[in-house]
Amino acid sequence: MNTGFSAADEQFRQQVAAWMQQHLRGEFEALRFRGGPGDEDFAPDQRKAWEQVVASGGWIGAGWSTEHGGRGLSINQQVIFYEEYARAGGPGRMGHIGEGLVGPTIAAFGTPEQQQRFLPPILAGKHFWCQGYSEPGAGSDLANIKTRASLDPHSHQWLINGQKVWTSLAHESDWCFVLARTEVGSVGHRGLSFLLVPMDQPGIRVQPIRQMTGTSEFNEVFFDQAHTSADNLIGQPGDGWKIAMALLGFERGVSTLGQQMQFQNELDEVVRIAKHNGAAQDPILRQRIARAWSGLRVLRYNSLRMLSGVQDGSLRPEATIYKLAWSSWHLELGKLAMDVLGPEAELLESGPYQLTRLQALFLFTRADTIYGGSSEIQRNIIAERALGMPREAR
């Protein structure tokens, strides 16, 4: 496991920091430290414009191979970029799902024609994607998916019917990658396919889900004879489960270090307030702050361990613990933030519903151990896939 950086890496770090300082200013100054979890509905148009600025610097897909339009940066350099991006207050990325999830998946499993069509708009910061996995009754349990798709032999179109839920930024997306059941009578992992579906069509309806934070970055998405070209199938019919699992492997990739820098920014804010209001003098709170600090370092070292292996989408054993670890840590940080704020945690700064950064953090972290795979499912994955224990009885 590589835990250090060379002199050349540190020089690269200075270049990234200088680029961020030069570009995250003027019209984009207001985006600093905004648009992260719980704040994803902030200034979407301005953040889309920012994506094109990031693209102009060659930072979108910087770790992709040059064959697919990337810069082929080393793992160390990618880690440095994500760290410096978060340290500078870079806004939540509107293009994260395209760059970090579907892009590498198309690069790994797509045809040359699909790669030439879909990857350049992602790299240019012009096409935005959402993820059509979870469904009512099939949230963490993807094998229970009910959304169906059938191939019309006359129009050469896949026709899709069903519903997805908790679809982040579906209302801002141009495309959705949809896991659908394409084999009649299939159950479980079999008979699933991975489809790329344009969002701007009559057969798709997006319904925002308003949360207790006052935001609505999540959505329900309804497919009623929605269509996509037969050419927009990734892999072969029935390959959906294999491709979906590979995509989850890419999700546990380099961007996890950027996520941790955002966590560090939140922890720094908690520490700042604790020093200001005297909460830092409470021995119990001091101990919890120290535990949060050390827990974040453990997350970092595990991420470096994950990144020391081959980045081919395979879910390495050490990667199986990451979702459970960070969501549990972040949940406790939300509680710590409220306890550090004290009585102010229950007061709103202004009406009608203006949450402070830490109040929004606390409320949003209630969902951390549920979305993206509940903690119960994550423990099953660790037991069955990492430790080789018998599967849970069904």
Q: Mind sketching the topology for me?
A:
Blueprint: H1 7-23, H2 44-56, H3 75-87, H4 96-109, H5 112-123, E1 129-132, E2 148-152, E3 157-164, E4 175-181, E5 192-198, E6 204-208, E7 219-229, E8 233-234, H6 240-251, H7 255-277, H8 283-307, H9 322-341, H10 357-365, H11 375-386
Parallel strand pairs: 1-4
Antiparallel strand pairs: 2-3, 3-7, 4-5, 5-8, 6-7
Helix pairs in contact: 1-3, 3-7, 4-5, 4-6, 7-8, 7-9, 8-9, 9-10
The proportion of residues forming helix, as a percent range, comes to 40-55%
Low-confidence stretches: none
In DSSP terms (H or I, runs of 4 or more residues), the helix count works out at 11
Q: What number is the mean pLDDT? A: 90
Distance between the termini: 38 Å
- CATH H-tier superfamily of the largest domain: Butyryl-CoA Dehydrogenase, subunit A, domain 3
CATH class of the largest domain: Mainly Alpha
**Largest sheet: spatial strand order:** 1-4-5-8
Rounded to an integer in angstroms, the radius of gyration calculated over CA atoms is 21 Å
**Main pleated sheet:** 4 strands, mixed
Compute the number of strand runs: 8
Order of SSEs, N→C? HHHHHEEEEEEEEHHHHHH
CATH architecture of the largest domain: Up-down Bundle
Structurally, the number of domains stands at 3
CATH fold descriptor of the largest domain? Butyryl-CoA Dehydrogenase, subunit A, domain 3
Domain Acyl-CoA dehydrogenase/oxidase C-terminal: 238-386
Family: Belongs to the acyl-CoA dehydrogenase family.
GO cellular component, one term: plasma membrane
InterPro entries: Acyl-CoA_Oxase/DH_mid-dom, Acyl-CoA_Oxase/DH_mid-dom_sf, AcylCo_DH-like_C, AcylCo_DH/oxidase_C, AcylCoA_DH/ox_N, AcylCoA_DH/ox_N_sf, AcylCoA_DH/oxidase_NM_dom_sf, Mycobact_Acyl-CoA_DH
